[in-house]
Amino acid sequence: xxxxxxxxGSAAYLETREIDIIKRNISCHLNGFKENLYxxxxxxxxxxxxxxxNVSNTLNHQIVKLDVISGNNFSYNTNYITNQNATITxxxxxxxxxxxxxxxxxxxxxxxxxxSNSTYFYELNVNKLPILTVVQHFNKxxxxxxxxxxxxxxxxxxxxxxxxxxxxxISFIIYNNLSxxxxxxxxxNNSGNLRLVIAYDLLDLKTRINExxxxxxxxxxxxxxxxxxxxxxxxxxxxxxxxxxxxxMDYIFYLLLSVGGCVLLSVFLILKRRKKSVQVSEYSFxx
Length: 287
Prior knowledge:
This protein has one helix at about 245-275; strands at about 1-5, 10-15, 25-30, 35-40, 45-50, 65-70, 75-80, 85-90, 100-110, 120-125, 130-140, 150-160, 160-165, 170-175, 180-185, 195-200, 210-220, 225-235. The protein has about 290 residues and is mostly beta strands. The protein folds into 3 domains: about 1-125, Immunoglobulin-like, CATH 2.60.40.2550; about 130-235, Sandwich (Immunoglobulin-like), CATH 2.60.40; about 245-280, no CATH class. The strands form 5 sheets. It has a 5-stranded mixed sheet, with no helix packed on it. Strand 17 (about 210-220) and strand 18 (about 225-235) form a beta hairpin. The chain is rod-shaped, with a radius of gyration of 41 Å. The termini are far apart. Mean pLDDT is about 80; it is low at about 245-265 and about 265-285.
């Protein structure tokens, strides 16, 4: 406040005030941006910068810096210039600019005399590719004692192209009533096909009701997800049809025991007729 006296002797007052001029805050709007991608899919999106939700001509020809951080490394770093619509177009390549996992995308509108230095953070997750499986052949109706044929095809979809899973090891497990009866490794051929001929006796049928599961597993790789597939079916056996090794051996054991009992009885009757006492230990039987 200043006190000023004019020529007429009256006082006049002049007040000064401070005006704080701040730079404008800019908003960033993305069009076409995706938060999730599969490996092999590229990404194109547009970033438009606005002031009070309106495109301002003063945002033309502004420098925009874009960084992509995958893990702890910069996988992409470049500068863009906004066009007449205050927009930049970004194209990112999967596997080159974008890596599997979380990718941080940082967009920075560089500072100038009007606009503030605005930084925008986004996240994009690149997922591993799922493995697809098609059961090409499996017949639940097969004759007792015959082999079982299973044919599968493994492939994955990358950039809308179906690729066969070539020469890949597949874990193969057989369960019978939730008990593990077989475990092994098989390999797909050059077309991604897997053909298995499974012996009937390998099912280890010990009970009348058998819940069978053929379980296939493909371990994950750098770009492919783990895949599991189960084929389930039931086998109902009639009495006397249990064909497992243990059941068959039990049957043979009881059969031989019965035959041996008959032989001993016959010998005992013959010796009794001759009125001769003989120790059973004098006789031996081999089966």
